[in-house]
Amino acid sequence: MTERKYNVAILGATGAVGTRLIEQLEQSTVPVNTIKLLASSRSAGKTLQFKGQDVTVEEATAESFEGIDIVLASGGGSVSQRFAPEAVKRGAVVVDNSSYWRMNDNVPLIVPEVNEAALRGHNGIIANPNCSTIQMVVALEPVRRAYGLKRVIVSTYQAASGAGQSAWQELVDETEAYNHGETPHPAILPFKGAEKHYPLAYNLLPQIDVFEDDGYTHEEWKMIHETKKIMFGDKNSKDVKVTGTAVRVPVPIGHGEAVYFETAANTGATVAGIQKVLSAGAGVVLEDDPQQQLYPQPVNAAGKRETFVGRVRADVENDDSFHMWVVSDNLLKGAAWNTVQIAERLVSLDLVAVPANAAEKFNSL
After folding, report:
1. pLDDT band for position 31 (cuts 50, 70, 90)
2. How far separated are the first and last CA of the chain, in Å rounded?
3. What is the mean pLDDT of the chain?
């Protein structure tokens, strides 16, 4: 029997995540028949490569998705809002990196190591979670399966590239300015639409995205509700309590997270037991030898697909409670690789098909 090959489009192909989508797709098990690279009109005409062949970037239009089987999208929320339903209408399955579809009840939010089964019954759009959420749930899932999970408190240390290529460049420019005794003039962080902008170089910014009415930032809100949806199938699940503080740090690539978690009572959770299940966990690399100063670091995680975990220790004040340190490349496992990984699962499970009438679920949005 001849292997089926798929026509794939990458939406937002010229961005920091888009270029990595191309690289990850090249290295994936997805059998690609044709590749189409889509972006805004200002990027149309650029030439990129896929498997050694030149591919001209095209301006994205609704008609761009005719004949496409899989769309890997990383063009931002408004772009995905506009084009994802158009792609589904034309029979393409969309794996979307933006935040726009994540909380939609008709859209599964997928981390393959955690909830691959939720791909079954998709309606043509699959959402890729927030980068900081992805690495945390990859690390927590082996613990949850072995010992249960009651509470999570996370503090993030998020790299500049999580805010896009321009924020990463702003960090580089600010660092250079400071090093030459000049005053930087930030225009992007903490986020592009903010009333005030602050430098990230030699600084920490305890704001990622807008503030909600309760004082949490939207990034923190996303981590809370995405974790619940991924691990328990309900963005408002009461099965686990999640809270956190998200901080932008002057690191180019690689988010770090200090994660406090409480296991279910009377499950016998120990540091050694948790280390054992983590070392066997899908997508997890345990780097945990304090005596040898071995622990995860962003500089070592950059360019790698895995989630690295270390500093596993018991909380000395609370029973059944532990801490760990989690690091991953936010542009790979946090974005491009998780997206391509979802596409691999869709292919292996024979789910690259849009159900009848699926597009109607998104018509009014």
Report:
1. very high
2. 41
3. 96
The encoded tokens of residue 28 equal: 């994936």
**Among 360, 352, 333, 359, residue whose Cα is nearest residue 110:** 333
* CA angle centred on 39, ends 35 and 43, rounded to 5°: 115
List the one residue out of 189, 12, 205, 216 whose CA is nearest residue 100: 12
Distance, CA of 280 to CA of 340 (rounded, Å):
22
**Active site includes 255?**
yes
Burial class (CB in 10 A: 0-12, 13-18, 19+), 135: buried
- In a 13 Å sphere around the CA of 314, the CA atoms on its Cβ side amount to 11
Cα–Cα distance between 154 and 21 in angstroms, integer? 28
Question: What distances in angstroms separate CA 162 from CA 17, 123, 181, 229, 361, one per listed residue?
Answer: 10, 28, 27, 22, 30
Exactly one of 131, 218, 225, 323 is catalytic; name it: 131
Question: What pLDDT sits at residue 364?
Answer: 59
State the amino acid at position 200 in one-letter form: L
Q: Is the pLDDT of residue 1 over 70?
A: no
Tokens 């499970």: give the residue.
Answer: 349
**Span 311-354, pLDDT tens digits:** 999 999 999 999 999 999 999 999 999 999 999 999 999 999 99
d(CA 65, CA 83): 9
Measured between alpha carbons, how far is 172 from 174 in angstroms, rounded to an integer? 6
Span 272-306, pLDDT tens digits: 999 999 999 999 999 999 999 999 999 999 999 99
Token duo for residue 343: 């596409």
d(CA 52, CA 307): 29
Query: CB neighbours of 215 closer than 8 A, spacing ≥ 6?
Result: none
Q: Out of 180, 218, 225, 255, which one is annotated catalytic?
A: 255
